[in-house]
Design a protein that fits this description.
single chain, 279 residues, mainly alpha
Length: 279
């Protein structure tokens, strides 16, 4: 069996994020980066350019003239949204490389992550009144550890998936067959990529049932989003849903009216995500 550190090391030997994504992440963290600097890097990836222009023009449909310049598109979208879109675009290709085997499907996992990301963003903004960009990216990345496990120890990972039933946790079977789990693997990769500590912790703890969970934290938002989308049938494995920390159950019960409105709006937002990323 491999440790979580060994899984990440082996994955990095065979897969790396595209240069454009890593360079954009570095530049966005640098206060001296100009819009021209970003434009020069983005232009290196025609697919990213097309996605960027498609996204900003769908979001600015009231304009008489479409946005066709990269610098205007970046200004309209914002740097954090640009980072999120670039990472999402790069990861999407990794998620979709192979066909499904047994009950595990990379395409289903990608849809799960995209939907959890969309739901997390809406939760952050509509329930807690905070910027949803970070919550979105946590949702996209939260299960990436499963991809690493599937690539590095495929047979054992698939055995863990097959052993998982709707009434128990995949993590238990991952630890039995693999010696680690996707939360720990994803946490170490997020740390290696230099993502902020709250991102790392949310990815590590999104299945942890904590008695002191704070609803507005990234970890709790991610856990609530996983629970809601699982109830709607968007789980990463068929019929396997996620549990909630006790304080989050109370939070949902106390704010049920707001959550009913959010759940009513969610299908339309999921459709938008599918249209943008062709899930």
């Amino acid at each position: 069996m491999l440790t979580a550190e060994q899984f990440v090391k082996k994955f990095k030997e065979v897969k790396t994020l595209p240069y454009v994504v890593t360079e954009l992440s570095r530049m966005i963290a640098d206060d001296d980066t100009t819009m021209k600097d970003l434009e020069d890097v983005i232009k290196m990836d025609p697919t990213l350019v097309a996605r960027l222009l498609r996204l900003v023009n769908s979001a600015s449909c009231g304009r008489l003239q479409p946005i066709t310049a990269i610098d205007r598109a970046v200004a309209f979208l914002g740097m954090r949204n640009l980072r999120n879109m670039a990472i999402t675009d790069a990861l999407q290709n990794i998620f979709k490389e192979q066909n499904s085997v047994g009950i595990f499907s990379r395409k289903r996992l990608w849809l799960h992550c995209a939907v959890v990301g969309t739901c997390s963003k809406i939760l952050a903004e509509k329930i807690f009144g905070i910027n949803g960009d970070d919550a979105y990216l946590c949702g996209i990345l939260h299960d990436f550890g499963k991809i690493i496990e599937e690539q590095i120890a495929r047979d054992d990972f698939l055995a863990a998936c097959e052993a998982c039933s709707p009434t128990d946790s995949l993590i238990t079977h991952e630890r039995h067959f693999l010696g680690t789990d996707h939360c720990e693997v994803g946490y170490l990769l997020a740390k290696d990529w230099g993502l902020p500590p709250p991102f790392q912790e949310a990815i590590r703890d999104h299945h942890t049932l904590a008695e002191d969970a704070v609803p507005a934290s990234l970890t709790s938002i991610l856990q609530i989003a996983q629970y809601i989308t699982g109830q709607l049938g968007y789980s990463s494995l068929p019929d396997v849903t996620s549990a909630l920390s006790p304080p989050l159950i109370i939070h949902l019960q106390e704010n049920m009216d707001e959550y009913k409105v959010l759940i009513d709006d969610l299908p339309e937002e999921i459709t938008k995500t599918q249209d943008i990323y062709e899930t």
